[in-house]
Design goal:
Length: 365
């Protein structure tokens, strides 16, 4: 199952495909007893996807069989033992994709000529993804992080490693005017390669970056490269050979502090926008502004959900889940719309927006 969504991957998922491109969404749960229902719900929604395929007279038999085969293959890749809050499965002729999300999704099956990506986009924005580069004299490991976890990212040239056989033990033991481990030219060449690899990753998927290592390693990395300029530093050795749990434990305080700073910044910007009459609040008002491309910054409380329906196309009004014309993921729709028009989207803790009713925006005009 995939977790991290890069801009290039999203572009690929959004391209048109031969009909039908099938999107299957279902909520999942991390813990007992709620996760007991996940397997049954997944089986039912996959059965519904195949039923819709069979019932669609515009789908040729060969294509129906192929897409059904892709759905079956996707199902074998689902690991409910490590489920998060939502699951998205995409299937089309010749391909399938499985995504685990840290944000709930409504249960849904959609047949179209594109995959339904708005829930994926919204979950990625809410996840506040970041990179952690951990360096040592013989290994550079890249970790991908989100709201509550990190995992090793085997992307680009990462991980980088060199054999201990390349080290001159006698030179390392000397003192005086001869190089230390991190002044050694072979080590500096290795760190330069790590810097180059990090630069390549950031060009494709730019995120906040944290760098960990012994003080001497961090100093040497700064001297030989530029990719980590401006990154937060954590003087903590051993993480290049560490576990995801140890890395998360080390960087979690930095990530939490940055989240608090971001929330405070958003609050100040919103307050200023109120004074300049460039402020919108509530799902209906923000939705209208998003449709017009006026949103410059969108703030959403992390667990804000609301179900609405169109009121003759002019306004959104509350609706019950399951109503025929209900829009259960309107928040994710608004997030995707704002991102597509260049808005800065920030998720903040529940209650941080006060009387804004879960969602607020700073308007461009």
């Amino acid at each position: 199952m995939e977790h991290a969504l890069s801009p290039a991957t999203l572009t690929g998922l959004r391209r048109p495909r031969p009909y039908p491109a099938v999107s299957v969404l279902t909520p999942t749960h991390r813990r007992e007893p709620d996760n007991a229902q996940d397997r049954v719900r997944l089986r039912n929604v996959m059965t519904e996807a195949k039923r819709q395929l069979e019932a669609d007279p515009t789908v040729p038999r060969e294509r129906r069989v192929e897409v059904g085969r892709q759905l079956d293959q996707a199902l074998t890749e689902v690991d409910l033992a490590h489920a998060e809050d939502g699951l998205v499965i995409y299937a089309a002729p010749g391909e399938h994709h499985v995504w685990s999300l840290t944000r709930p999704v409504p249960e849904r099956v959609v047949l179209s000529d594109t995959f339904l990506t708005r829930n994926l986009v919204s979950a990625q924005a809410a996840d506040r993804s970041f990179w952690v580069l951990s360096v040592s004299a013989d290994r550079a490991t890249l970790w991908s992080g989100g709201t509550d976890r990190v995992f090793e990212a085997r992307t680009g040239d990462f991980p980088l490693a060199r054999s201990r056989d390349n080290f001159d033990a006698e030179r390392q033991e000397r003192i005086g005017d001869l190089p230390s481990t991190f002044q050694d030219e072979d080590t500096r060449h290795f760190l330069r390669a790590a810097d180059t690899a990090m630069s390549a990753v950031l060009r494709v998927d730019e995120r906040p970056l944290y760098v960990t290592g012994e003080p001497a390693a961090l100093a040497a990395l700064d001297e030989v490269g530029s990719a980590t300029e401006g990154a937060a530093r954590l003087r903590h050795g051993g993480l290049a050979h560490g576990t995801p749990e140890s890395v998360w434990s080390a960087v979690r305080p930095l990530v939490a502090a940055e989240a608090r700073r971001s929330t405070d910044t958003v609050a100040r910007i919103l307050e200023s926008a109120r004074g300049h009459r460039a402020f919108a609040a509530g799902v209906d008002e923000v939705w209208q502004s998003a449709q017009e491309g006026r949103v410059g910054l969108l703030a959403v409380e992390e667990n804000y959900r609301v179900t609405v329906r169109d009121d003759d196309g002019d306004h959104l009004v509350p609706a019950a889940s399951g109503d025929l014309d209900a829009r259960e993921d309107i928040v994710d729709e608004i997030v995707e719309q704002c991102l597509e028009t260049g808005a800065d989207v920030r998720f903040v803790p529940d209650g941080a927006l006060g009387d804004a009713d879960g969602m607020a925006a700073v308007l461009r005009y």
